[in-house]
Automatic annotation (TrEMBL):
Species the sequence originates in: Crossiella cryophila
Any single Gene Ontology cellular-component annotation: cytoplasm
Name of the molecule in the record: Aminobenzoyl-glutamate utilization protein B
One BP term from GO: folic acid catabolic process
Region (Disordered): 536-564
Length: 564
């Protein structure tokens, strides 16, 4: 994208003229400006940027960390495949969390369960003193994305027969099994290097639950779980391999439940349909898109309980919305419009609305200096080396989904600045962490180009050599970068300096209102015993108050006498 053209689009998003400067952008929206205007103010443009060299240093400690990954590749990929097989949904990753924590415990980390009040979350710690480095670990699967491993066509591993509505089981369609295993391997490798070479510092591995629902980390950050970090290292499975300091979308999650009065579908007069309320809301929000949603905005939804049979008017129906925008301020404006549509839909359908806010997260704050350090380490280590069989599976998956059969990438993507205009995209609950401490972000190829996240084809690749090679490369990228942060205080200081400059005037405040109880599921008794936890967590009301329809049937007016 032409830089000046992109800059004009940014200014238009802010409602500013083409002659406006960085100061005006910061005044309009200091949060989004921190991710875009900072680079412009420092003369960084996509067309002129060249990644620097000389940041990543070879060292015996780094060699030891990388050698540990090579020597323990089987145990790291075994964890990934084990979590893939569990395929546990967000906030219910009981076995996945235990398997991950156990590998860390066996390698010298101290485990504390219940981070942020979530039973499936943990913090694993090694070492003492400064610097303090955090690693992000996730292990949640997604509904409906079950798939046979390594199958090139859609073939669900778990298929649930129902004559009226068959469904698929859960699957790792975002490859969080690989994410968690790769980051775990990186942290253990750095721990090994620290012990062998006497490096001071503390490692903290945050086993995070509910990322697919954008829940775990926003509540944990609000509770202070991530305070005291000097840097936070994260990677995500992707269709290419690169470092980045791009931003993401801020996001709010909420359900809108419409309560009516049930009745027979064949005699519908007087019934009040919760499904009508949900459908009316969906329709109303669709009319927002042309004139009320900026290019950086998104919203999408799923109907949760739309009724069990056509001949029963459902007296309760929920519709779950994700709302996204480029910054918290912009998100709030769009979210309020969605809420107004829900209120209008309830009035029109003569139902009662129960609006339940679940969670929200900021947009990510990038860090150019951190990305440059990671990028140079990636160039030194090299891209994942995929086999002929990996390439064959990649092309089969691309063919099944009607994408060009180009196979897997064999090169790293060069480091480039974020686009001059942010036009929306995915979200991550690690975004809130990025406003509390500098964040290193790496992407590594674990599925083929042209395949979207949250697709069965990602699940297929996520337990094969494709994901294994990607996650082991990611583990090396993170480990090498972490060793540099431990051994080069001047590099860590530069990263911290940029973080402080970017956040000046854009003070983080959680988007979660005080007193909000997170969405939770009660863990199995054996999980609680194994992890030494009590249920419910402190401050949690359990069970939550039930949502029950108590609505009266509607009326069409006075009954008329027969024959009139």
């Amino acid at each position: 994208m032409d830089h000046e053209l992109g800059r004009r689009r940014v200014l238009q998003l802010f409602g500013l003229s083409a002659g406006a400067g960085v100061a005006a952008m910061r005044a309009a929206d200091p949060v989004l400006a921190a991710t875009l205007a900072y680079d412009e103010a420092n003369g960084v443009s996509p067309g002129q940027y060249r990644a620097p060299s000389g940041l990543a240093k070879d060292s015996a400690a780094k060699d030891a960390a990388l050698a540990w990954i090579d020597g323990n590749a089987e145990s790291i990929t075994r964890l990934s495949d084990e979590v893939w097989g569990f395929a546990e949904l967000s906030l219910r990753e009981w076995r996945s969390a235990q398997a991950t924590a156990e590998l860390l415990r066996r390698n010298g980390f101290r485990i504390e369960w219940g981070t942020g009040g979530f039973p499936a979350a943990f913090t694993a710690t090694y070492g003492a003193g400064k610097p303090v480095l955090g690693f992000n670990v996730e292990y949640g699967a997604l509904p409906g994305l079950s798939q046979q491993r390594g199958a090139g066509t859609h073939d669900p591993l778990v298929y649930n027969h129902d004559a009226y509505g068959p469904t698929y089981g859960a699957g790792h369609g975002d490859a969080h099994n690989a994410l968690g295993a790769g980051a775990t391997g990186a942290a253990i490798a750095v721990r090994h290097a620290m012990e062998r070479h006497g490096l001071p510092g503390t490692l903290k591995v945050f086993g995070s639950t509910g990322e697919e629902q954008l829940v775990g980390k926003p509540f944990a950050v609000k509770a202070g779980a991530y305070e005291g970090l000097d840097a936070y290292l994260d990677w995500h499975p992707f269709a290419a391999t690169l470092a980045t300091w791009n931003t993401t979308s801020a996001l709010a999650s909420a359900t809108f439940t419409f309560l009516g009065a049930a009745g027979h579908g064949g005699s519908p007069l007087g019934n009040k349909s919760g499904l009508d309320g949900a459908l009316l809301m969906a329709t109303m929000t669709e009319y927002l898109r042309e004139k009320n949603v900026a290019p950086s905005g998104r919203f999408h939804y799923a109907i949760i309980n739309g009724g069990g049979a056509p001949n029963v008017t459902p007296d309760m129906c929920s519709i779950w919305f994700f709302v996204r925008e480029g910054s918290p301020a912009r998100l709030t404006v769009l979210y309020d419009k969605i809420v107004a549509a829900a209120e209008a839909a309830a009035k029109a359908s003569q139902t009662r609305l129960v609006h339940r806010f679940h969670a929200a997260t900021w947009n990510s704050l990038g860090n150019k200096a951190a990305a440059e350090l990671a990028d140079e380490n990636m160039r030194k280590i090299g891209p994942p080396q995929f086999s002929v069989e990996d390439q064959r599976l990649a092309r089969a998956l691309q063919k099944s989904l009607g994408r060009p059969e180009v196979g897997l990438p064999t090169q790293l993507v060069p480091l480039t600045p974020p686009p001059a205009a942010f036009l929306g995209g995915p979200s991550t609950d690690a975004a809130d962490v990025s406003w509390r401490t500098p964040k290193v972000t790496v992407l590594a190829a674990t599925f083929p180009p042209g395949i979207p996240h949250h697709n069965w084809a990602v699940t297929s690749a996520a337990a094969t050599g494709i994901a294994h090679k990607g996650l082991l490369s990611a583990a090396k990228y993170l480990a090498a970068t972490a060793v540099d942060l431990l051994t080069q205080p001047e590099v860590l200081a530069a990263i911290r300096k940029e973080f402080e400059e970017r956040t000046a005037g854009a003070n983080w405040k959680s988007l979660i209102p005080d007193g909000t109880q997170p969405p939770l599921y009660e863990p199995p008794a054996d999980f609680l015993r194994a992890t030494g936890q009590q249920w419910p967590p402190s401050g949690v009301t359990w069970p939550p108050p039930p949502v029950v329809s108590t609505e009266q049937l509607g009326s069409t007016g006075p009954e008329l006498r027969p024959g009139i």
